[in-house]
Amino acid sequence: MKKNSIRRWIILCFTAVLILSMAASAAANYFENSNDIMEDYGQLAETCAYVASNLFVYQWNNDEVLGSVGTKAYNDAANSLRGLCKTYKLDTLSIYRVDPSVPARYYYFYVSPVLEENQELQREYALRTIPATELLPGEEALINGSREMQIEAGDQLPDDKIIWVSPVNDLNGSAIALISMVCDIGLIQNKIHTDFLRDILPFSMSLLVGLLILLYLVQRRIIRPIGILSDGMRQFALDSRKKPEPLKLRSGDEIGEIAEAFEKMTDDISTYVNSIEKLTQKETEINTQLELGRRVQCVLVPERTTRSGDGWRVNAITRPAKTVGGDFYDCFSLDDSRVCVVMGDVSGKGIGAAISMAMVKTVIREKLTAGFSPAETLNRTNDQIAARNPENQFATAFVAVLNTKTGELLYCNAGHNPPLMLREKCAFLNPEPGIALGVFENAGLKNASYTLSPGQGILLYTDGVTEAVSPQRQFFGEERLREAVGAFSAGENAAEETVLRLIGAVDDFCGGNEAFDDMAVLALVYRGGEGTWRSLPVELSAFDTVRRAVLAAVGDSHETRQALLACDEALANIVSYSGASTLAYSCKTYGDRLRVAFSDNGVPFDQTAAVLEDREFERLDGGGMGLHLIRRCASSMRYERKEDRNILTLFFPLPPSSEHLNQWHPGELPTEI
Fold it and tell me: pTM of the full predicted structure?
């Protein structure tokens, strides 16, 4: 199809060239012939006018000839003019003078080659004055003094005639008459057409023959070889593994060079494609194995994990630089009051690092489950790895055990990055750096502890985060990590939001650069062992939320109303005097007691320290009534300043018949800070 299209295109081009060439040549030839023939007829008219003018001036301008029509002398003169008409192929020839004032023409002679017509014209025009509607422009030019022969042609003349007008000058050079010579334009055009065809046909035939010969050569030397190349390419495109048959085009020109290059190219491509298929097959097998390894690793270290328990919540994400990697994390509960978190990084990347990671992670979990402390776990893991480490790989790890009742965080670091403490003002925890696992035996790692307050947490990560590189070749670093986490607020989804915010900041920093190291992030948030903290707006209307929570927990009773009065006054004091911007509360029952606690970030404000005066009832509106109500209604109250927050805890007695609920009703309570 392409071959036919090329042939058709070339034929159309050649035809267009032929037509344009012939048209241009014909136009030029026609124009040149027209000018030449018109010049020839003009020269003939000048010759005829010269002869007739001399005859009129020297022989006929006398009374003998111009005495009257019909005399022998006049007829002889008219016959002489008629002979000139025949000789120069004129329709008519007339000699006359012009009176431009009338206007009118006075004819001396008016003749044509046809005898009968001449006799009639002589009777009508000879020696007579004939009025004229208007003079010809040429006549006016000669009257005004021009001595050049004038030519007239156009639609205003009868029968498409052409007229030459020439002056008749006397011996002194003065014009005494005009000579008008009329010729049929059709006669001139026939002459032009005849000469045009005689000149153009041989040229057109030679041009046509030349173009046909050229088209044949193009077909033989260009179109046919291109068609053979096209067929070979089409067959090769159907099966590039098989080398096509030789084209046998050895023309020695550019087409031959293209054919030789095509044969070499197809040979190389066939070899390359066969090699690629083999490599692809091997790569497919490797990718299948890597995908299987990735699935196994996802079982050991899920890409995303969210876990929670009574008083704690964990969220973690891992992102290997390759299909599988060496970064890992772990999170599991030891019992009702202890939860373990682990973050580790095995040296290297790929399958080798993934295998070592699986071993290290399994050993660490085994030791922790067996009841060993973080330091004992890492020391025993180190000895086990160092004893059998043919590849000289090592791993960093951070292990922490959180007591969900007390908030105590027992941890040990084996050469890992320092964790970030999640609190209102985040800061890095800088434990003893320790030594990486597997370097040598007897690492001597030791435990350390830190007590978390409710609403605080810890962020663990691998060096793939801090060593992420921007397009400007800068590291992300620990300071950008701390800024990315920002001001920590322990809401319901604080762990997830913190991890996602950090991962998003790293991605934006890298600007699309491919990660060269594995990445893992884990956030552990401690909610408190004595009940869950819930956020409140810092306004008086927040008491409605506390009231609903208390009623949902212990029901409506006289004791409950007393407790709500105290809680209302305590909350009003915080909103009115502490200057806090964040506020939270906790509500839970213990046997026959109700505990309600308030936490705010305002200025230190101890409502239990105020010394109250005994006042008469009429003086209570002057201030202090709220503290009186709180102390009268609460069985006990406690204040502490912890991590820049005021924590006020109120305890209230409950009637023995109350059915106490130890869990929250979802949908009734606001989210946790």
Answer: 0.46
